[in-house]
Design a protein that fits this description.
Blueprint: H1 9-15, E1 26-29, H2 39-54, E2 58-63, H3 73-85, E3 93-95, H4 100-112, E4 116-119, H5 123-129, H6 152-163, E5 173-176, E6 191-195, E7 212-214, H7 216-226, E8 231-235, H8 241-252, E9 258-262, E10 265-268, H9 274-282, H10 297-303, H11 307-317, E11 324-327, H12 328-342, E12 345-346, E13 348-349, E14 352-358, E15 365-371, E16 380-386, E17 388-392, E18 412-415, E19 422-429, E20 436-443, E21 458-459, E22 461-463, E23 472-479, E24 504-512, H13 515-521, E25 545-548, E26 552-556, E27 565-572
Parallel strand pairs: 1-2, 2-3, 8-9, 10-11, 12-25, 14-20, 18-21, 23-27
Antiparallel strand pairs: 4-5, 5-6, 6-7, 13-24, 14-17, 15-16, 17-22, 18-19, 19-20, 23-24, 25-26, 26-27
The chain binds adenosine-5'-triphosphate (ATP) and magnesium ion (MG) (2 copies).
Residues 31-32, 34-35 line the site of one magnesium ion (MG).
Amino acid sequence: NAMFKIGFLSDVYQEKPLSETVPKIRTRFPPEPNGFLHIGHSKAIAINFGFAKHYGGECILRFDDTNPEGEDERYYNAIRDIVTWLGFTPVRETCASDNFDRLYELAEDLIKRDGAYVCHCTKAEIKAQRGEGEGGQRGGERYACSHRSRPIDESITEFRAMRDGKYKAGEAALRMKQDLEDPNPQMWDLFAWRIMDSEEKQHHRTGGKWKVYPTYDFAHCLCDSIEEISHSLCTTEFELSRVSYEWLCDKLEVYRPMQREYGRLNITGTVLSKRKILQLVKEGHVRDWDDPRLYTLIALRRRGVPPGAILAFVNDLGVTKAVINVQMAKFDQIVRQYLETTVPRLMVVLEPLKVVIDGLPDDHVEMVDVPFSKEPSFGTHNVPFTKTVYIERSDFREVDSPDYFRLAPGKTVGLLRVPYPITATSFDKDPATGTVTCVYAKYEKPEEGAAPKKGKTFIHWVGESSAHNSPLRAEIRIFNPLFKSEDPSAHPGGFLADINPGSEQIYKDACIETGFRDISASAPWPKEEKNAAAGDLATNQHSIRFQGMRVAYFAVDRDSTPEKIVLNQIVSLKDTQGK
Ligand code: ATP
Ligand code: MG
Ligand code: MG
């Protein structure tokens, strides 16, 4: 990704450039395998991989799996998959759990250095020791508990007892012996190891071996140290933790990486929290975790957003220390810009209305040359222009008016790329429902020597020819925001009360022109991901994207089969939000 903008990371580098102690830049992206990654994580991925790449270093994908309760194998796989999809190759994959033995040794070492003790206080007691009142008020006096001064040997014995299952969760924990006088709460004797001994939820990788697990505060810095990370980049909520990070490495006299912080990236108008998305899935408001209306990365992929557009978005916002809240409309705009020059154009009719062109013979087939893009390098293809064509129902009106420029009785419009325009003459209506079922038109081919008639507007269309298997039929899913407001979680009735009932419109009988087969089979784009044969639609769906002229950008959905094409709207052609 040559376009990666380094931003404030150049200052970070200047603070600790390559040297004998840091011979190589090494970063890590450390997700916890307890959920699917979301758009915010793409910033963390871009920063860690981008920084390493910029300075010729390497980035590790580390699964931060120190809490078996919410972790699961499917997330390891999904995370690995999405990092690869974004275009990054970790130099290697590691797991915090690979280091459990070493981390345990370091814990005993810490006790021996008088840097930790086994504590049996309850949560409420510990709160009180930290000067926090019942109601959560802070600033009270802080004091040590009796366990803090117990002999080192006793803590070693008790820590081994914890390890060996002699205590239940909550009955004992290993706490760091930090500095209660320090104003930073990250120095108030943080938990280092706690008991988690659940029969039903064992660790995915270490099974039932461990009954004690290290906390983030203990494990994260030491895993960074063990892996010889040069720059440990994390989000700004961890700014205060920098002190405990350094304290622990120094207390143990192990290599100390440099922690620096960047600002989180949040999208407004949606929810990113795992708990909330789970509720949306469970209650059927969305199809699954990859529903195109969500902002998990698997959802964006399913919707058809190219990975390059996600990286362009992160880059455009800037790799900064500031926490960024950005509207979905901004994201859509970047995606639209990206697609504008990178995908071909086709004609797609969402809600087909039949137009019969009187005067053309029944078997009339005229192959019309249509460019795939404004970019000449995309080439052209042929589509059949026939006696029966389908146009968008919204491009026809029963009654004309002077400020209306599309098709109506007596009105002339151009069909995109067809040599001469058509003029509507009459139409049929279903008497029961009142809907127009067929429009009759004439083809305005001028007499020899006469000036050709012109339409003011050009509309898209798809011809009907069984010989060309045209039109292709498709189900098309058009998406609107899933929530009505910019801050669904602030809704007094809860975020579910803010759901937009019209977030998905399905067009079951849409028409696609035959060029779709060309782009699914052998098109030279997009260069990043080679397209698959049409028969592999369901597995290779992510790479088939195009602009439906005058409609929207589309991608093939994973629900597609060789018998049935399903398309998702990636983004609209224009920003229509708030209009
Ligand atoms: P969430 O609560 O959203 O799942 P998390 O911090 O629990 O976030 P992790 O799996 O620990 O998620 O995240 C892996 C890395 O991605 C961490 O370094 C984390 O700081 C970073 N990260 C998480 N959310 C964001 C975000 N919104 N913007 C930027 N970085 C993020
Ligand atoms: Mg997470
Ligand atoms: Mg986390």
